[in-house]
């Protein structure tokens, strides 16, 4: 079991083995919860930060901007095609 101590400023250093295992970087933010069993630190970001381009690359569109009405019409047409099957 690793140990740590509380500094005069109220800071706690997480052991390097835990930081490495959890892939925690400097500046990581935590929710602090006082439980019956002790103090619980829960990372605030359970998933790594991503850019919209990384997760929605299939949505790239180079044509002219579509109006909300045109987008609604395209969605309606798609559902009509799906419901006919």
What are its keywords?
3 helices, two-stranded antiparallel ribbon, 85 residues, alpha+beta
Helix and strand topology:
Elements: H1 16-22, E1 30-34, E2 39-43, H2 52-55, H3 68-84
Antiparallel strand pairs: 1-2
Q: What class would the helix/strand composition place it in?
A: alpha+beta
Number of helices: 3
Major sheet: arrangement of strands:
1-2
**Which blocks of ≥5 consecutive residues have pLDDT under 50?**
none
Whole-Å distance between the termini? 60 Å
Mean pLDDT: 87
Radius of gyration, CA atoms, in whole angstroms: 24 Å
What fraction strand?
Answer: 5-15%
Number of strands: 2
Coarse shape: elongated
The biggest beta sheet reads:
2 strands, antiparallel
What is the chain-wise order of helices and strands? HEEHH
Helix percentage range? 25-40%
Could you give a short description of this structure?
The chain contains three helices and two strands; from the N terminus they run H-E-E-H-H. It is an alpha+beta fold and 85 residues long.
């Amino acid at each position: 079991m690793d140990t740590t101590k509380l500094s005069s400023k109220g800071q706690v250093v997480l052991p390097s083995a835990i930081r490495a295992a959890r892939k925690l970087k400097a500046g990581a933010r935590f929710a602090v919860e006082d439980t019956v069993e002790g103090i619980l630190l829960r990372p605030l970001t359970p998933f790594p930060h991503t850019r919209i381009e990384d997760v929605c690359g299939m949505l790239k569109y180079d044509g002219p901007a579509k109006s909300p009405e045109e987008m609604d019409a395209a969605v309606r047409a798609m559902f009509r095609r799906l419901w006919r099957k």
